[in-house]
């Protein structure tokens, strides 16, 4: 990617897991659906390359060889072509893993952080409550919340930057969503969208060409979100807060109503695949 004056971003996917569509859409779902592990490459002038999440990597299969982590693999079977990991995609395009300055972690579920170990020079940005949960949960409890400690680099705690500490500005917008201005650039703001996971982050991005609210796992489908169809309640077993999940969707709908130029994207939504980049 050539050096640019403005923040630029591109969407990619590294692997997918499968689940029954009834989980996503209890009303109309049928058969299995694929949850692609989407991540985002961001170029920030005067800083360099930043990742938002990492997708799956081979580390997921290593981390789930034994119990209790193996249960994770059984519940969400993963398909991954080794040449489609974030590290491989970037290096094939001339970007070395050591060039990634920061990895922003939306939340610590395996499909979002399995590639963390592939970027040893990157500092890791996340929310305070998400970081504290990772430290607090024991191995079994962590697995029940979708967190695999084995995916975390050994120097994980030394590389953490809490968004509350590094944001240039923190505010609550008119729709009740907390925004964090980072990289001293108003075109890109992280947002807190709790519910699915504690302290989960998304982002708002706007330039002359496009306006995006990327709401990660605040829903798994724009269609169900738009129709106000909630996922099957069995997901409460690993969600952080069902009430916050519903409230976050309400806030996003309010934002969408007030900002009609924005598209709303979710990590695993089929619509998001339309934004996947074929090349850097």
What does this structure look like?
The chain is α/β, with parallel strands linked by helices. It is built from eleven helices and 13 strands. The chain has helices at about 20-25, 60-65, 70-75, 85-90, 110-115, 130-135, 140-145, 155-160, 165, 220-225, 240-260; strands at about 10-20, 30-45, 50, 80, 100-105, 125, 160, 170, 180, 190, 200-205, 210-215, 265. A seven-stranded mixed sheet has the order 4-1-2-3-5-6-7. It is globular, with a radius of gyration of 17 Å. The model has no long low-confidence stretch (mean pLDDT about 95).
Q: Brief overview, please?
A:
This protein has 280 residues and is of the alpha/beta class. The chain is built from 11 helices and 13 strands.
Lay out the secondary structure.
Blueprint: E1 8-20, H1 21-24, E2 32-44, E3 48-52, H2 59-63, H3 70-75, E4 78-79, H4 86-92, E5 100-104, H5 110-113, E6 123-126, H6 128-136, H7 139-144, H8 156-159, E7 160-162, H9 163-166, E8 169-172, E9 178-181, E10 188-192, E11 201-206, E12 211-214, H10 222-227, H11 242-258, E13 263-265
Parallel strand pairs: 3-5, 5-6, 6-7, 12-13
Antiparallel strand pairs: 1-2, 1-4, 2-3, 8-9, 9-10, 10-11, 11-12
